[in-house]
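JOB MANIFEST
job_type = single_chain_structure
chain_count = 1
residues = 392
[input]
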Amino acid sequence: MTVRGIGFDARLIGALGIGRYISGLLPELARLLGRSLTVLASRPDAAIVRALIGGEPELLTVNARPYRLAEQSLLPLSLLRADLDLIHFPHYNLPLVKPGHFVVTVHDLFPFQFPEIHSGPLPRAVNQMLMRNAVRRAERIITPSAATALAVKQNFPASADRVLSIPEAADDRFQAARNPEGEAAWQVRLGIRPPYVFYLGQWKAYKNLPMLLDAFKMLRRTHPNAQLVIAGDDPRHPEVRQAAAVLPEGSVVLPGRLPESAVPDLYRGAAVVVLPSKAEGFGLPVIEAMACGVPVICSDLPVLHELADGVATFCDPNDPDAFARAIAQTLDAPSTARARQLGIERAKSFTWERSARQTVEAYESALGVRLISPALEEYPGAREEKDLQVER
């Protein structure tokens, strides 16, 4: 079979979690597939995407914004003209009109588990319909964790032989080498002072931020100098700002959505990174924090044990007192060099290179062809990865 091309939809590169997935995976896919890769991007993001993929892959700009009518009308026409063998959609928002062979990444099942994340009955029904369509028709369904793969198979039994787990990774910005000047500059700019507890992520209900604020209120009784930094923002969740407002002025910092250049320094300057979610599809902040050599306290979820078992401290997401105690213990007894190194080594076991190779193997399995040239086939660790199998 002669391969005409592999497409990758990068229109959501500006989104929080999915954008990190796209920007981590794309450079490695471009290196592996070269001119066989065609990347779809919105016009405002074209320069960002071109910088990620280099000069070889084709860049196709489209006017079909995600979750808009044009996605169902204009995008199928663009895909038809591109004449690709297979398209990878890194989210379930793909055209209902058949786009040919495709692979989809399902990061979680939150539209079903937490339908309230969508603002009304119609958006909830539409998102559930789009996910059902994607899972039903995809040649392969990629999930970022074994826990999410299991959830997909349990909720969509007919998909079980098409589901596979390919973990995400921290990119090269997240390293343990300290940058005191950079850390201090960001802290001054954002009104942050050590020792601070750092949360990075969305504010949706399942992220459990009111519980984290309750835990921090308890912590302040014994650690009045501690500060809580909650990055991100979402006007649909005023309860976060309301809960922060009742705490002493300056004890909680809400810096909004952070510049990407600030994130590694804010991780490294933190006393501890906390992820209190009730559910996660993967938990990228856990990997990023470990890569930066920072202690992690997170919810006791199977998916987070996949990432940080033996490294992080796990707490019941319904128990603010448990989180308060764990944070206090970390502030009172900072992690040892050995513990930090254990986290760094664990984070290094997750790489975007490995993720990209396994993703290309999913394309190959779907099409029944080889896509990676022999020159790129062997690399350190490749032998261990040859046992990738579709999760059954």
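[summary]
The CA atoms of residues 46 and 313 lie 41 Å apart.
The two ends are 27 Å apart (CA to CA).
exit_status = 0
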